[in-house]
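Here is one chain, start to finish.
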Amino acid sequence: MTIRFLLIFALIQPAFIHCQQPKFDTSQCEITKGCHLPEPKDSVGMGVAWNLLDDETLELELFVNTDQANGRYVAVGFSDDDQMGNEPVIECSAIAQQPPSLKFSFDKANGKGNERVPGNFSAHFYDISTSFQDGQLYCKGTVKVSGSSENEKVFKYDPSKEYHLLLANGKTTAKGLGYHKSQSSVSRKLRLAENSGFDKTQCGKSKGCTMPDAGSCYNVDGGIGASYRPIEGTQNIEFEIFGPANTSATNDVFVALGFSNDEFMNASSVIECSQLPGEANPTMKFSYNPVFNNTRIAGEEAIRAKLIQQSIGKVSDGSVYCKGIVNVGGDANEPRIFKWNKDQGYHLLFAVGFTASTGLTPHWGSCVSILTFLDQLDNIGFNDADCGNKKGCFQPTDCDGGCDEIASSWQVLSPNKLHVELTGKVATPNKYVAMGFSTNGRMGNNSVIECSSFDNGTFSMTFSYNLVNANYSNLRPSTDVSTLFSNQRVQFVDGVLYCSADVLVEGNANDQTVFKYEPGTNYTMVMATGETKTNGTKKGLGNHHGKRSVAPAQLLSDYLPPTAAPPPSGGTIPLVRQKRQSSQGSFDSSACGKTKACYEPTTGDAVSYRVINPSSIEFEFSSTQSSPSGVYLALGFSSDGKMSPADVIECSSLGNQALSMKFSANSGYSNSRIDGEEDIRSQYITDTQTSYADGKIYCKGTVKSDGNANTQIFKYTPDQKYYLIVAKGAASAGGLGYHGQNGKHVSSQRLLTDLSAGNGSGSTVTLVMLHAIFMTVAWMTMVPTAVIFARVLRSSWPTLKPGGLLIWFHIHRGANLIGIALMIAGFVLILVHKDWKFVTAGWGGKHAIIGIIALCLAWLQPFISTLRCSPNDPRRPIFNYIHRGIGVIAMVLATTAICIAGYHFTGNRNVVQLVLALIPISVIFALSIFFIIFNNLVDVDTKSFTKQNGNSSPRIEDIPMRPTSKTETETTWTIRSPQSAASPDSDSSRNEVPLEKKRLWVNRFRELVVYGAVLIFVAIGTILSVFFALGLNGK
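Its structure:
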């Protein structure tokens, strides 16, 4: 019996162990641990989870779906930015046939690969569990994240920092992690201590969100909302629901989400996040509001088990939160269970309160949302809170026959596309709400966009045209215009009509009704509502009976609302745009240097600043611009006069948004938006004024300047001198565009409290630019020219000795001395720029160290030359080898330093600059090798010349290629007549090229080659100098 039991146990033990192997559990994500799980399209399936136990201990999980564990990894990097390079890494990897384990590694700078951290750090990892099961490699463990004194590349957690988690997977070896190819993902910037809850940074990106503000709530001051993300190919929606929880008495709380056709709670299906008495955590459930109370649904638990998956929830820090995937196809036997109608928008009703054994008690707080479509990332519905900001609106109230709450909005998506909304009270079908685009201030002869119903049919959006000649008529489209309306949303509920669509407005030569939008044209918006008419096959819009209003003319791209509607008589409206007086302001330059400091780099652009106290600064911006939309004037604060890194405050209109002051940051050679900047801006920039008048944008505001947890937000340091970088240009919805060649200016270095700093320009860029030009000309032109003359043309012009010295020596010495002078000047310039401080960090440090060694060797050469012995001294070869060797080493080092500068210090043409910098030294080496071979193949020992003596026949004499003897004061050449080795009449003499011609050709060839090389050196020095000057100016 015992043997049989042991045999059975041996058979089932592997399966038992297999079942017990750990795997990644997503159900606790955002509850007990933070998670980053990339979208399926971004990976084969991988993820990371973390739970910070204290400031030195991190519980970490990593997994990846893979075909085998051997030689595979999944790793997470902890980075200050969203780029891979120069950050610590924790990996889950299986090297060769070894079992999976957690290890430390490090991503090299600039994404140049990964290296495993050497040393034994097993004491940093404990409670480790790993597995490879069902195609998933998994590691979990507790990691000591306090760093290591043995190696600074071991991850050290900083509680004050936010991290981007860089997740990647691929193949690995004992050396380090292999390239991940496309298998990588970057998380939002987050604090590891914040491992759960609602992530609003993904709203409008990967999920739709509704978060009513206090003005839409009763007894709730924000902190309530929901998100929704339809899962493609299914009837499922992933919901998140959160709200405030008064847990002073009990944790039995709820936040409920009702789906209503109107703004009332009765007859609404509900999905709730509730913790009923006896439950450990809140979960998602179904319920129903029959009137103004909530009731439980019989059999709901069974329905819930079938329709709600992965429901998780928690109550903490005064809030309740749930997340789950809900099948919104409804229940065939229970109509009170929420069933999603994709074509319908919902008012989302929120309620918060306490629970009892019978369910939800009457709520103590509630909110209502605008009309919302659950399959849209951005809420769809007429939201007047966005009027004048994200869209232009016309909401008339002055109609003679009553306006029936008609309203319209428009948003310019592109030069040929508008997003249009129309809404109004409409009792029955066969009605319309229409908006005309008039260029003459009248209702006639203009294109119309309408939402209408004919013959008791459904409402839809289309074009028409109001034609006025002898009679009025409403022309219908003569072509199929349905394809010109995309993303169309139509809702007709309880007598309220709402329609929206993205409308192509590029006109149609064959159809007069199709509206053609002209961006530079002022339009008078005409709104009307009434009945539609059908007479046989002829259809049209009926008379509005006074339910009509006309707005002042304006550019459609200018979303600021008009001050007042004109009288309803329909008279011609002056095409003058009115502005909100509350937003007006202008730059007062007379106060500059008195009550505020100013920097006005051009006559049309200016910024001012006034330090109120160390934590508060008042800024003004003024800039000449052709439009108030899609433009910016930005002010960067730099410690070294460079564009990056720099904190930025800007006066901008992103795309078609209204002007406002914002924070941004310069990184690399571009400007980027800051995560969560809108929320920070609302607290840190106050007392703002904006306007556009007389062709100038203007912004003024008081900025809280004592810093933020987000280090990209400007923080003022009172004793620091700043370079002010002012730039202007075009802006889009994505951020600031390139400022152009003349759109950026750098001030002199200044304290912000110095009111008299004025318009002095910064010399920092000029100093660096001159340093680059001087060094480039010295090493790319002068030194190579000196080298090539000495190397190739020593035997040329042997009888020409200006000042007692040969031509080649004059050029060799002169070019080198000019090069050394340029080197000294360039070295002094960069020392002044760096405030006489030596920096060794990064590529700048490598460039500096290599460059200084090259300069020292170059400056040593003139002193070594004074120690040379005479040409006939037996020790002269030793001098030659030292002199030439030092020169070669200096040239190699200088070329390396210039290559580093060309590849790393400018934003453009990096590879081109690298290649150009390598050409001079390559030419020198190539010609040296060529002429060594050439000299061995061609007889060039002597050079012949012909001397004419009166009428006698010319005398041919040979001058040796090398002097017979040399002293410090003269060079001796022994001239001899060539011997005739053969008779002039011999066959060989007739076939051979005369010796003197051959030698003359050889020397001319040498000279031509050197002249060509010098032209190359001059061209390289000039081109590189221009490129460096442009690059260092950000061009």
